Amino acid sequence: MGDEKLYSHFQLSTLVLLRVLIGWHFLYEGIAKLIKPGWSAAGYLLQSKWIFSGIFHWMANNETVISLVNMLNIWGLILIGFALMVGLLSRFASIAGIALILLYYLCNPPLVGLYYAIPSEGNYIIVNKNVIEMAALLVVFSLPTSQIIGLDYLILKLIKKSN
Hints:
There is one protein chain. By secondary structure, the protein is an all-alpha fold. The chain has seven helices and no strands. It has one domain (3-162). 67% of the residues lie in helices and 0% in strands. The longest helix is centred in the first third of the chain and has 27 residues, at 9-35. It is globular, with a radius of gyration of 18 Å. The mean pLDDT is 90.
């Protein structure tokens, strides 16, 4: 409350746009996985070749675990995306989004010497779209625009009013 004076209209608009676009990306990815018959993270996990590959392979090969991973992945994407889009608990959603993307990154990092059957979108060394989206989520976390424009603003207003 009162934080809107910290940003120009343009700055606030672009920060909200960043939050909403990342939210849209998460929400879309979650819904796409939800409605695709038979979608599973198993193929992605089995591609892992880095330091945690044993854990990722175990997850993919255990029927109970992969069912849980699939459900958590789909609903995590949907809930994080929705929360970011509407500005509800967006700081928590940002951290959850960073954690989820970090797991994707650790599973299949773009490191020299690691080649995957699933084609990448280009030739990266360390920095790929996952790292960039994690950095963008860090910006969303550190500049909580949802407390100015979003459901968090309305919740804070109600809390202030009740005190």
